[in-house]
Amino acid sequence: EPEVTQTPSHQVTQMGQEVILRCVPISNHLYFYWYRQILGQKVEFLVSFYNNEISEKSEIFDDQFSVERPDGSNFTLKIRSTKLEDSAMYFCVYIGELREQYFGPGTRLTVT
Amino acid sequence: AQKITQTQPGMFVQEKEAVTLDCTYDTSDPSYGLFWYKQPSSGEMIFLIYQGSYDQQNATEGRYSLNFQKARKSANLVISASQLGDSAMYFCAMRGATGNQFYFGTGTSLTVIP
Predict the structure, then answer these.
(1) For A4-40, what is each residue's pLDDT tens digit?
(2) Are the C-beta atoms of A102 and A37 separated by less than 8 Å?
(3) N or C: which terminus of chain A carries fewer CB neighbours within 10 A?
């Protein structure tokens, strides 16, 4: 069973709207990642977040994206003004003992 | 830069047979990790197996084994005794020496035929 939950499981939004995707860890993990997977394509790294700071980010993670840990436990990924091409599955990911990455169940974002 | 290549977009295998899914990689890092994930139609990503670049033996996890050939930069996944539930997308991924970012291949769609 994944040690994170993600909400919502599916979100439909209109282009230009802001969305907030949430990741709730069950165990005490310090390192979190966000990845996305556009339908039918490969999984792409967005950002890594360690101890309340961004440690790595990809070219995809532009000014429209932000990550936070607003209440000390939940992690959020915010997209300020969604575009059609933001439609994808967004995964919250945590690190295992071998530095393997375990994926949360994902949030399917549909931008119309 | 890290690169993962999966050249088989789709594979078919008879139930109970073994199947090999190919993965080659390119990296200049001396130390790296190789991973395989399964993605069923439900969309979840399931971690299957890990191979470290300095591991002397090929990794095995139940019916999954990783055929690691370092000189050829390949990390093929072998699934033995295929089951209908093995039908899914399979992704090969690599982590470099620095940071924890993963690089994924484009995936192979496996269909197990009864």
Answers:
(1) 899 999 999 999 999 999 998 877 777 889 999 999 8
(2) no
(3) N
Interatomic CA distance for residues B14 and A34, integer angstroms: 36
A41 chain-B contacts, CB cut-off 8 A: 106
Q: Which chain A residues are within 8 Å of B47, Cβ to Cβ?
A: 96, 100-103
Residue A1 has pLDDT above 60, yes or no: no
Q: For residue A53, what are the CA distances in angstroms to A31, A32, A36, A87, A104?
A: 10, 10, 20, 26, 20
Q: Which residue from B111, B114, B102, B85 is spatially nearest to B21, judged by alpha carbons?
A: B111
**How many Å apart are CA B14 and CA B7, to the nearest integer?**
20
Question: What pLDDT score does A2 carry?
Answer: 61
Integer Cα distance of B61 and B69 in angstroms: 18
Which of the four pLDDT bands, split at 50, 70 and 90, describes residue A52?
Answer: confident
Contact A42 B100 (CB under 8 A): no
Contact B106 A42 (CB under 8 A): yes
As a whole number, mean pLDDT of residues B11-26 equals 97
Q: Which residues does B73 contact at the CB level (< 8 Å), separation at least 6?
A: B24, B25, B26, B27
User: Residue B4's closest chain A neighbor by CA?
Assistant: A42
Model confidence at B68, pLDDT cuts 50, 70, 90, reads very high
Q: Which residues contact A26 (CB under 8 A, 6 or more apart)?
A: A3, A4, A5
User: Which residue, chain included where needed, has tokens 């996890």?
Assistant: B61
